[in-house]
Amino acid sequence: MHNYGILEFSALRRCHVHCPLCTVSGHLLYTTTAMDPQEIEELKKQWAIEQLELQQKAIFEDHHLSFHTSPPGISAQPNEDEAPNYDDPTVHNEDPKAFTVSGLRYIGGLDISFMAPEGNSVESKDVPGHNASDPNRPDAYAVITVIEYPSLSLVHSITHPIRLTAPYIPSFLSYRETPAYLELISTLRENLQKAGKEHEFPQVILVDGNGQMHVREAGVATAVGVQANVPTIGVAKTYHPPTLHDNEAHDSHWRLTQKGMKQKSREVLKRPGDYLGVLNANRDKYVGVTLRSATSANFLYVSPGHRVSLVQAIRLVMALSKFRIPEPIRLADRLGRDAAAAVTDKKAGQCDED
């Protein structure tokens, strides 16, 4: 495992092109100056435009992959002549014993473990950001892992301590995490090239977060995939309804709340491999699934990131899971939490493994 000095992802107040973001070596950088509420709203509007542009570049089907599964999967999408059933979902199943994975050898995982604010034992993505009281204390640890298939053993990992200078804003998480992930991917590629092991670069990367299952179909897994030009899959532990309007979050329908989705999933998803489709904001197609990956009572929310189809994403998550969380992300989570625990001198929790 490689460790590096603290990386701080920041940017000038304005770039020289058209927005508060700029690009250096293909990596998005953040604004550091404190912004008032009006400026934040303007930034959110600009980010929303950029996410829609990103979505147009994303490929949510199998594209130039060096592996495949067989037999061909049945699409979770509804037939062209019928609308998705919003109220009574159809349950599908992908049994790992019913399909084979061919040509797959190396898989990556990306995860960020956030440091609990000083004086608080609870870790959260909603970290306030740069810790001015202790310049040597990172806000989080970003980790990339590479595992080998089918053994699921860890072969490479890199851990970066990072500082966060962008605020946590729902549906814009990619602007906070993508730079760290791109830096890890770049570092991994360079390390493997120097070692003469370019063939061990991941054929697909699982990202802790959403991909297409996002209000603008541009979650962090999609941002990473498009910008790094690598196949990616979004694997989220928490359900975020891909709704169009904020007031929809207060709707009583089970699809529009975390509690409702969890309750419905517990009612209908009984076997490992069972899943139900998650509809996009327009409610006319599926952009992801709620998946029971193991015997755990908790579920995963899986979606294509880039260059991977929904069915392929489901199958790979199932094939790569010993426990609830697929191994590439589970191991990245563990390494990040261990690094955070070493700084805080207290034991960090682990991903659910039941």
From TrEMBL:
InterPro entries: Endonuclease-V. GO terms for cellular component: cytoplasm; nucleolus. It is found in: Cytoplasm. GO terms for molecular function: RNA endonuclease activity producing 5'-phosphomonoesters, hydrolytic mechanism; single-stranded RNA binding. The keyword Metal-binding does not apply. Coiled coil: none annotated. Keywords: Cytoplasm, Endonuclease, Hydrolase, Nuclease. GO terms for biological process: DNA repair. The keyword Hydrolase applies. It comes from the Eukaryota. This is Endonuclease V. It comes from Rhizoctonia solani.
